[in-house]
Design goal:
Strand order of the largest sheet: 1-4-5-6-7-10-11-14
Radius of gyration: 41 Å
Strand content: 35-45%
Helix content: 10-25%
Distance between the termini: 80 Å
Largest sheet: 8 strands, antiparallel, barrel
Oligomer: single chain
Order of helices and strands: HHEEEEEEEEEEHEEEEEEEEEHEHEHE
Structural class: mainly beta
Number of helices: 6
Number of domains: 2
Shape: rod-shaped
Number of strands: 22
Length: 480
């Protein structure tokens, strides 16, 4: 598959995958939905990524081409090389929209191998002889290091994501190494065979190798494509959390695996200079001083050296969690009390119907939920303090006055401590209240008890006042 087909397939995946899978929502969005709230704000992430793949510097070599000092023929192929890197990323998700930007450090390698044949007529003395320089087992390797800034836009839907954008690379260093076996021969139409292995005429065989650095273009802009899948269902650790409970660090980690492709849009070797092979002594009459490396611009037939790479990548993101708002349970407001005006005395007198039940200055009826005021427990215990006697006596008087009334006591705690412990503590505290009412002559069968722990806060547990408000006992009127 050539690079054009790969890019077309990647672009097709980027466009079509968002419509065929199930979305994996973030912890923030899930908690807001769990709390019954609509979340219409962006979710922010900071992550690390690693990539590994294949790269190639497409140098556009042709089978034949004219060089500066004669005729050249070659049979070269491009094995390419490795591509690897790490990056630091920022990701933003807003509904289905996805934006990624960051900075990366990337290594890209490439190579070319094959044979090169260079010919040059003998100029002085003027003859019909031609020198041939046969570079066999030729191999050139290139190693480039870059710092890049990718900027990608795309969609994240039902676990799949796809993005496209640009990557702007800043080449830091590029090195090359070349090795070859050089054989020199002379062809003369007056001779039967080519002349070779004649040291006195510089016709000898030897191995050549060379290393050096290349000057690169200032910037390396690339078209970037990335698509992949969210691995949270397999790698993310989950536990049951109560509404308002902040997730752990591990729960806020998200994992992705994907494929990527980057293709250069400018000549990567612009202003490039390459090394030289000296193939004969300066005293030689032959007007050939050097054979340049196979990356020399004169041998490229006006084709750009654009780098491209493809591969797989793995991303780990940390989600900046935002607490969902806590729905406050409003205390029931007192119903307006019926009044009648005595015109004779011109005073307002309160008239309470015979079947009306009043508790703490409020009229109550079946189904109402009332917070028990002035009820105090020892810290982290179910022991009721003596300062709670007045509140307990008022509730006992209410039950004595209305012998058919049945109630349920519901205990609540703040979020300090483990969930299981708080659940047991809330149950023990309402059992203590029930025990005190029974000591005051109330039949225990009329009193139900339920512990809710820290699952139903009515205030913000991040403040001291909010935690105090969440530690409460509620009275539910079951029957009048």
């Amino acid at each position: 598959m050539n690079i054009q087909r790969f890019l077309c397939l990647s672009l097709l995946i980027a466009i079509t995958t968002p419509f065929y899978a199930e979305r994996v929502t973030s912890v923030t969005v899930q908690d807001w939905q769990k709390s019954g709230q609509n979340y219409n704000k962006p979710v922010h992430y900071l992550g690390l990524g690693a990539k590994l793949g294949y790269s190639q510097f497409n140098q556009g070599m042709t089978k034949e081409g004219k060089a500066e000092a004669g005729q050249m023929e070659n049979s070269l192929h491009l094995p390419g090389g490795a591509n690897a890197g790490i990056d630091l990323r920022y990701k933003l998700e807003y509904g289905l929209f996805r934006f990624v930007a960051g900075v990366d450090a990337t290594y890209a390698g490439s190579s070319m191998a094959g044979t090169v044949k260079y010919s040059k007529p003998l100029v002085e003395p003027s003859t019909d002889m031609t020198y041939y320089y046969n570079f066999t087992n030729t191999r050139e390797q290139q190693h480039a290091f870059e710092v890049g800034v990718p900027i990608l836009f795309g969609a994240d839907y039902k676990g799949f994501y796809a993005m496209a954008g640009m990557r702007l690379g800043l080449p830091v260093m590029k090195e090359y190494s070349i090795s070859t076996d050089l054989t020199r021969t002379i062809s003369d139409k007056r001779g039967i065979d080519d002349y070779s292995d004649m040291p006195n005429h510089y016709l000898y065989n030897n191995e050549l190798s060379q290393k050096g650095k290349l000057k690169l273009a200032t910037l390396n802009p690339q078209v970037a494509i990335e698509a992949g899948y969210n691995l949270d269902p397999w790698l993310q650790r989950k536990r049951d959390r109560k509404t308002g409970e902040k997730p752990s660090f591990v729960e806020l980690l998200h994992y992705e695996v994907g494929i990527y492709a980057n293709v250069g849009v400018l000549d990567y070797h612009q202003k490039a200079t390459s090394g030289e092979f000296y193939v004969c002594d300066e005293k030689d009459k032959i007007d050939v001083t050097s054979i340049k490396t196979i990356t020399e611009d004169s041998q490229i037939a006006n084709k750009n050296m654009v780098p491209w790479n493809i591969g797989v990548r793995f991303n780990v993101y940390y989600e900046f969690y935002k607490n969902p708002p806590v729905k406050k349970q409003r205390r029931r407001r007192p119903r307006p009390k019926p009044v009648v005006q005595d015109t004779a005395k011109e005073e307002v007198q309160e008239v309470v119907p015979a079947d009306t039940i009043v508790y703490n200055g409020e009229t109550i009826q079946k189904g109402d939920t009332i917070i028990m005021e002035n009820l105090y427990f020892d810290t982290d215990k179910s022991t009721i303090r003596s300062t709670s006697d007045r509140s307990l006596n008022e509730l006992a008087t209410l039950l004595e006055t209305h012998p058919t009334m049945k109630i349920t006591l519901v205990g609540h705690t703040d979020n300090v401590g483990k969930a299981d412990y708080n659940m047991q503590l809330s149950k023990a505290r309402v059992e203590s209240v029930k025990s005190e009412l029974m000591k005051r002559g109330i039949d225990g069968s009329r009193i139900g008890t339920v512990g809710k722990g820290m699952t139903q806060p009515i205030a913000d547990n991040r403040t001291r006042e909010g935690r105090a408000e969440n530690r409460r006992v509620e009275i539910i009127i079951e029957e009048q």
